[in-house]
Amino acid sequence: MAVIETFGLSRNFGKTIAVEDVTLAVEAGEVLGFLGPNGAGKTTTIRMLAGMIAPTEGYAIVAGHRTDRDMEQLHEMVGMLTQTPGLYDRLSARRNLQYFASFYPSVESQSQVEKYLKLMGLWERRDSKAGTFSKGMKQRLALARALVHEPKVLFLDEPTAGLDPEAAGEVRQLIRTLREEGRTVFLSTHNLNEAEMLCSRIAVIHTRLLALDTPEQLRRRFFRRQIIVQLEASDAKVMEVVKSLPFVQEARGEGSQLILELTDLERNRPELVKAIVEAGGRVIGVSEKQYPLEDVYLKLIREESGNES
Ligand SMILES: Nc1ncnc2c1ncn2[C@@H]1O[C@H](COP(=O)(O)OP(=O)(O)OP(=O)(O)O)[C@@H](O)[C@H]1O
Ligand SMILES: [Mg+2]
After folding, report:
1. Is the minimum distance from the CB of 40 to ligand 1 under 6 angstroms?
2. Which pLDDT score, from 0 to 100, does residue 308 have?
């Protein structure tokens, strides 16, 4: 079941087209990675999905509500982390959360505030003013704010940007927990490794939606599957034998590695290894070549700018 659906979603700011004709669906319980260069329209899309700004064309339905019409109901269902935390510097961490929790009449604010201050590791600092917090602490407080009413859908706009590796890791762990709890997460990030670690599917936007698929399928779109056979040492005889196999379509050597394209990567693998061993090759390992998601992303973006000119 789709929890987020957009239909030709578009937004202009004067003459600037920020988002154009984006149609997509995010399933319940999915963590969707939302990628794109600076100025690609990620934040604008998120703001439309969370009901903060209206689209100029098209519309979106989130948790069953039109984001440009049913704002009240929508706010109960969604939580949002923006790129600027939007906290009250002069209020303590606890007062900040109490304030935001008070927007939701159905929320047991006392216990929820306590729960999230503890979960975010801010309990010890609950009475310190938010203005005295480091960037990472502010980010954790902002996350607590996004979660305090237990929303089903979360919009996280670059939640790990500017955090140290440990703090970023903690935020990622939290996102995994949200996923396990069955919440739907719309995650914008510039960190492709992070996207791959956390997301079932990845959307790439550059004003228009360029792609939306699993990382695996995105790779296949640009790269043919290749197998890497790691040998003990490079071996000309083995190479010759490998090249003569009927199911080997491409073969090249890189040091002690053979990089091969096979007719059927899974089914041909045992026969391949057998032939190498029979030819006297000593096989240390066999694996599929993994192209970094970054290579896929850059190809997508370059393909797009190529189309424009
Ligand atoms: N309030 C606004 N007024 C005018 N233009 C805006 C406004 N908000 C966004 N834009 C423009 O819309 C485009 C998309 O901006 P947006 O903030 O959505 O990009 P983004 O993908 O989030 O970028 P980043 O990775 O830098 O956060 C940009 O050209 C930006 O200048
Ligand atoms: Mg942004």
Report:
1. yes
2. 60
